[in-house]
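// run 5 | inverse folding | seed 20
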């Protein structure tokens, strides 16, 4: 990894997302636990050589993945608002052409070779995580979404998906329709907003994940 990219991965998240993060002690009520949603068949069957939190650049490549650049940040919390530190957040999604990093994904031969497709991030002492990726696009049978897995102590503690709030395809999505409770549905939706000051139309989205467990360590 080049020095410039290493600097991006360690400083950009604080600069872009820092203002959106939660301050301990501000939550008096229990939070709604994030609803589970299926892993699906396209968790990578062969991990990429690069699994960091910048999905737009693979290793030291200068050619970025194609799509609407999105800065994805949030926190992993317990239901009482306590941060969950040292949790491994994994995300995976289709590229700008609607293709997963999976050998059985439809149109696999058209996959964007410059898009990482999968990334990991270890939460800090405040439960914060950050990824640079692209806004998800639909593919046959599914509304746009990003898959999430939260791991703690080497064990998967939550598998879910983040959908785009207000996307009309959500109400036709078979998996989303299985979640009947509105509060639970709301835990799966996130706003994609223009990134202030971006000259190239970048987006930002905040997605907090609330676990129904007691954090370790």
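// decoded
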């Amino acid at each position: 990894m080049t020095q410039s990219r290493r600097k991006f991965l360690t400083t950009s998240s604080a600069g872009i997302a820092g203002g959106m993060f939660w301050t301990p002690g501000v939550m008096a009520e229990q939070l709604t636990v994030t609803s589970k949603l299926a892993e699906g068949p396209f968790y990578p069957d062969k991990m990429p050589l690069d699994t960091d939190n910048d999905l737009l650049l693979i290793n030291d490549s200068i050619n970025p993945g194609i799509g609407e650049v999105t800065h994805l940040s949030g926190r992993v919390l317990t239901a009482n608002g306590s941060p969950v530190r040292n949790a491994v957040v994994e995300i995976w999604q289709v590229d700008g052409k609607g293709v997963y990093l999976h050998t059985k994904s439809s149109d696999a031969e058209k996959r964007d070779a410059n898009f990482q497709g999968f990334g990991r991030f270890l939460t800090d002492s405040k439960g914060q995580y950050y990824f640079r990726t692209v806004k998800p696009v639909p593919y046959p049978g599914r509304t746009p979404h990003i898959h999430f897995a939260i791991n703690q102590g080497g064990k998967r503690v939550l598998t879910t998906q983040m959908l785009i709030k207000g996307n009309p395809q959500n109400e036709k999505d078979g998996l989303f329709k299985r979640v009947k409770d509105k509060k639970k549905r709301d835990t799966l939706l996130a706003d994609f907003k223009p990134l202030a000051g971006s000259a190239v139309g970048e987006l930002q989205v905040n997605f907090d994940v609330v676990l129904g467990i007691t954090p370790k360590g």
